[in-house]
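FAQ

Q: What does a record look like?
A: Structure on top, sequence underneath. For example:
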């Protein structure tokens, strides 16, 4: 338990806030100006108290007194001259030499903190001018570098404009995360604004993970290359703090000339190319993660559909025999008819693509429902429908849909042994749902399968199954049986 503050402090007006607390102007009993931060004792708030004595770390706003005050944690610090945010708002973009000075001071701090502490909230508000040096303040979201990320480390807390891609993906922050924030800060100092401006949380997510490589119009080639490397999507590709500091110290205020200028410009291009490669890799990785999550959701929903479907059939037909495929699919046989539901399988991205244009919609998983009967004198063997987990009606809104296909009537083969029939979510199906006249057409509307409201779907297939088991199921009298027009988006 922390003791009370060692000194008596008189609080004035509120002058800011950060992390989890509020900062007030203050004076000691001897009239020494200071700033006092009061932090409510919420879970995780005590973390800031762990970083009150960063011995040997340059350019950190020191804590000159700490303890408890009226049920809150309290930290007293020297009163800074201004924040970096104040400087930016007063001046806009900074001259090159001034920007490099600010960045070098912060890089010194990060180099000293490397392998010890991750700050996790580097932004202009937390960089203060104290005794002629730009110092890092507000360790309310910091953690030890080797600490396991726990709930009270606030892994997804932070300021959206400065958060590294790995933190948007809810992954563990490292010193590379602070270097990314330094790169954002550098862009803001030199260009007058951070590279990603939202405004919404979703916008920031897309920009940090998938946005184009930020352009730098005012930085010399060596500095532009360093900033671009700091903003690499892959944490392991970013420079370590010591390397960033050493390179900042070598940035010439005057421009390079001759062969060195040419070489620096070529290097800048190579760095930008690598940044674009990593942006694309990040986009692919994020898309893969998104599809993994959707496939898991599809499997969960499919299991409910399959169980409810099977339970209803076996309750109504106690004499039916049931077999499973071990992967969630099953088959029910009654007399000479068999109704089966396949297990769901993953569908590759853009599997419906038929040309340069994107497919009509996205399919994540698919399955097939098939009703088989002995061949009659016309060779009719039954019917099958496709089940697709897709955003067939509203972009980005995924659910299971039922549909089916037929051969184009003008072709000689339009009376298939199965009518209608399922198609895999691949090229042929993509052609069928495109405006192009193709070998196949949609023969059944895209009907959503709503969990908890499957009565129509189950009842319809139960009726066809009954007809099949009684040798009364025949080829549909007309195709398509239901008008599919407008049931999916183009």
């Amino acid at each position: 338990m922390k003791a009370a503050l060692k000194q008596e402090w008189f609080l004035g007006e509120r002058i800011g806030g950060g992390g989890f607390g509020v900062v007030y102007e203050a004076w000691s009993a001897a009239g020494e100006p200071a700033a006092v931060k009061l932090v409510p004792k919420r879970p995780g708030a005590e973390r800031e108290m762990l970083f009150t004595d960063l011995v040997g770390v340059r350019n950190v706003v020191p804590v000159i007194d700490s303890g408890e005050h009226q049920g809150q944690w309290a930290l007293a610090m020297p009163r800074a001259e201004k924040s970096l945010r104040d400087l930016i708002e007063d001046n806009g973009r900074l001259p090159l030499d001034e920007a490099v000075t600010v960045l070098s001071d912060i890089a010194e701090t990060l180099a000293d903190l490397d392998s010890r502490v991750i700050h996790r909230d580097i932004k202009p508000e937390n960089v203060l001018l104290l005794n002629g040096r730009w110092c890092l303040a507000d360790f309310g979201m910091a953690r030890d570098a080797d600490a396991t990320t726990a709930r009270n480390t606030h892994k997804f807390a932070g300021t959206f404009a400065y958060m590294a891609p790995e933190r948007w993906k809810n992954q563990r922050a490292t010193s590379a995360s602070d270097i990314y924030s330094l790169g954002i800060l550098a862009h803001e100092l030199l260009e007058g604004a951070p590279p990603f401006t939202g405004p919404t949380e979703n916008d920031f997510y897309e920009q940090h993970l998938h946005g184009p490589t930020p352009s730098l119009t005012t930085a010399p080639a060596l500095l532009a290359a360093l900033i671009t490397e700091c903003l690499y999507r892959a944490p392991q590709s970013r420079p370590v703090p010591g390397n960033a500091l050493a390179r900042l110290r070598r940035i010439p205020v005057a421009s390079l000339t001759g062969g060195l200028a040419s070489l620096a410009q070529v290097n800048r291009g190579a760095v930008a190319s690598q940044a674009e490669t990593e942006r694309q890799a990040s986009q692919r990785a994020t898309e893969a993660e998104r599809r993994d999550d959707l496939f898991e959701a599809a499997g969960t929903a499919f299991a409910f559909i399959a169980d409810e479907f099977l339970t209803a059939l076996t309750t109504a037909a106690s004499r039916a025999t049931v077999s499973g495929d071990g992967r969630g699919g099953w088959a029910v046989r009654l007399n000479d008819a068999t109704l089966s539901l396949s297990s769901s399988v993953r569908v590759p991205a853009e599997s419906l693509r038929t040309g340069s244009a994107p497919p009509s919609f996205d399919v994540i998983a698919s399955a097939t429902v098939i009703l088989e009967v002995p061949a009659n004198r016309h060779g009719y063997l039954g019917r099958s429908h496709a089940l697709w987990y897709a955003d067939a009606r509203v972009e980005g809104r995924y659910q299971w849909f039922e549909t089916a296909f037929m051969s184009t009537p003008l072709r000689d083969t339009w009376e298939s042994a199965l009518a209608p029939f399922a198609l895999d979510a691949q090229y042929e199906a993509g052609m069928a749902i495109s405006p192009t006249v193709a070998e196949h057409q949609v023969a059944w509307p895209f009907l959503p399968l709503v969990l908890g409201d499957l009565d129509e779907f189950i009842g319809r297939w139960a009726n066809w199954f009954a007809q099949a088991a009684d040798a009364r199921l025949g080829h549909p009298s007309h195709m398509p049986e239901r008008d599919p027009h407008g049931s999916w988006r183009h």
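Q: Is there anything notable about this one?
A: Residues 392 and 488 are 5 Å apart (CA to CA).
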